[in-house]
Request: fold
Amino acid sequence: MTLSSFGYLLKEGGRNIKANRQMSVASIGVLVACMLLIGAAVLFSMNVNSIMGYIEAMNEMVVFVQDDADQATIDALGQSLKSDRNISSVTYTSKEDALKEQMNIMEDAADLLEGLQGDENPLPASYSIQLKDLELLDETVARINNMPGVNYAVAPTDVAATLVDVKKGVSTAGFLIVAILGMVSVIIVSNTIKVTVFNRRKEISIMKYVGATDTFIRIPFLVEGMIIGLVSALLAFGLLWAGYDYVLRWLGETGSSWLQMAYANLIPFDSIGLRLLGGFTAAGVSFGVLGSLFFLGRYLKV
Reply:
């Protein structure tokens, strides 16, 4: 195919859009709405995972040391915890420090604990740890309980299960939304192309009779679908950016502590903007191409 022929086919694709501008505009409008919902679902899923990660980091697991463990055993236990693949941080609290913390909590009643110094101190030494992945909590607890010097471990099992379920639920819902709206987008483009093919059916028939290949006939419709998808993607990206910035500003100005916590852990659009733009562009072009090919072969049989 020569450069002039390729240029002609591109112009034909643009002419198809102009000839069916009402249908094309309607398709772009619906596609923009679909891609806005897809983008919102992706951003929501990413931000929920970010907030869940912050909440996970706030939930500590406490490992209590056996009372009869010597310092060498305690130090060895600390090294074992630090080297565990699912533990991100380890903080040691001695028996003395545990008693001081308890006295600080009791404030005016701290004198009641004065007689528990030294060998009379009933509080155990402990390690406070944070996990990398709460999905591996049970597995990690089992490993820790088998380490020498461990009396028992206290883990936020119920909280961990809830967080894991929320993350899985959000990820699954986001995937389903993207899949359903992606199929809807392909069908919308295909319907637009079907109208164009129907309106040009006589012209297509003549072109086939004079020897035009199916590829030569298909390219203008592929270009039409790609242009519709690309324009829709860019419009949706711009609207999503503006809407996301508005939501961030609103959250930044609210006085709710919970919303402030969420705001502090939301992902800035600038840090993901290029990836989203690339994803929107690829999705828009893909929807256009797939929509063009979906029914095109059937309607070219003239």
Notes: The two ends are 23 Å apart (CA to CA).
